[in-house]
Amino acid sequence: MIPGRFTYHRPGSVSEAVKLLASLGEDARPLAGGHSLIPMMKLRLAQPEHLIDLGRITALKGIRRDGAEIVIGAMTTQAEIIGSALLGETAPILAEAAIVIADPQVRYVGTIGGNVANGDPGNDMPGLMLCLDAHYTLVGPVGTRKVAARDFYEAAFFTKLQAGEIVTELRFAVPAANHGWAYEKLKRKIGDYAVAAAAVTLAVSGGKCTSAAIALTNVAQTPLLAVDAAKALVGSSLDKSAIDAAAKAAMAISDPVADTRGPKEYRQSVLGVMVRRAIERAKSRAR
User: Fold this and answer.
1) Which numeric CATH code is attached to 61-173?
2) What CATH architecture applies to the domain 181-285?
């Protein structure tokens, strides 16, 4: 299929992009990597009259440390995340998740901002941002605001983004140097969404789990923060009974749809396996 006609805009700054979105209204869409929007345009499921390409805005790119926080520009690509020495030292779970997103061609163009802002429950980074308790900086016609990733997702493709707003950066606290982490994802083939996926971060002291966060991907209409699953780990030695309890709690809040990846019951069962594997690997990495 061929997209409908549109006018192409390439602003050089965030303020210029926001002004264009505000003036053009519902007929305009921002363009990051394009891996969600362009296929929808080809199928005529989306027919914007104006595309606002964010690719020239250098202020939206880069990875840096700001005191106790890591800051990632929204137009930073998945390939740049994989290659970042800073993230490799402080938050290696991002690279572990990024490297199983689609294929290299996609990762060299696809951006973390587009991945989190689209509201697609199959995208990998939103769940990871829940796990890391990240915050998104949103810039729009009325100014700048910050929204917690854990509050951002409302339903499939519905988020807290308001008309004319764009995500400009993601921020999260630098994880403790001795934390454990893992991202486990099962997919049918290269480039596919997850049948189910789980992100886990945890800390261990004196042989006991002192903190944990677990987030789930593509098993509901939004990414899920598995609060009760994490609670099942805290205070335990991360033994089999605690891990089983966490997996059971994660499965209980999931509600995957039956699709070409399998029936609901199968996808829930796979989720349990992913949670168990992620906890085990995170435990092995915690120091």
Assistant:
1) 3.30.465.10
2) 2-Layer Sandwich (3.30)
The pLDDT of residue 110 is 95
* Domain positions in the chain: 7-52, 61-173, 181-285
* Mean pLDDT, residues 207-226 taken together: 98
User: For 248-272, how does the pLDDT look when each residue is reduced to its tens digit (9 = 90+)?
Assistant: 999 999 999 999 999 999 999 999 9
Q: How far is CA 143 from CA 15, 19, 59, 164, in A?
A: 10, 11, 16, 11
Q: How confident is the model at residue 86 (pLDDT cuts 50, 70, 90)?
A: very high
What's the pLDDT tens digit per position in 11-52? 999 999 999 999 999 899 999 998 888 888 888 888 999 999
CATH class of 7-52: alpha beta
* CA gap 249, 228 in Å, rounded: 6
Amino acid identity of 132? L
